[in-house]
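Hi L.,

As promised, Reverse transcriptase Ty1/copia-type domain-containing protein:
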Amino acid sequence: MDVKTAFFNGGLNENVFMAQPKGFVVQGKENMGCHLKKFIYGLKQASRQWYLKFDETIQKFGFKENDEDNCIYAKFRNKRHIENVLKRYGMQVYNAGPVPIAKGDEFENFQCPKNQYEKDHMKSVPYVSAIESIMYAQVCTRPDLTFTTEMLGRYQLNTGRAHWIAVKKALRYLQGTKDLMLTYRKTDALQLVSYADADWARCKDTKKSTSRYVFALAGGPYHGKSYKQSIVA
């Protein structure tokens, strides 16, 4: 979420006056000043006033401020995102799967549609929206799905039946792990641990290698790619 010209979206608690800006001076009232109704960039209290405005607004939507870090807000609901995704694609009645991608699973361009009949059949499959739904969970709290979304995301423009089956396999994995979450234990020994692996020249289309790594701190993993999450829904 991004708020454009954020500092212009709140009111002032104090009386603040400023000179008329150059190029916008009212003729006949050159000696008069402007009474600000909104705060603007450059005011010392602008950042504070915007924070108060944002805090008031975001809490109306049910978000709660973190006591340890006041810049982080969280909203917890009885249903999380994953249950809604499973119902959307009719996967809530299927048995849970052990892994999103199993050893030996292969994906390549050869699995893409080979004729117009297969292409027309795959047009009715909600492949792109399903990938985006899984990716939302992956970005927020499920880094274990990073490889899955990256791999299956390659075939959004030319989806084959095998790719759609793989998406449903990933949804079945979510069915069995929807109650899991990232946890970090309190410890005095904050030792950063990393794991790495590579699959040399495994891609049959490009003959490129696949490598992945993960870092763990205080008993919990996080993305190898750095990102900042300010609001968690």
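The radius of gyration is 25 Å.

Thanks again for sending the construct details.

K.
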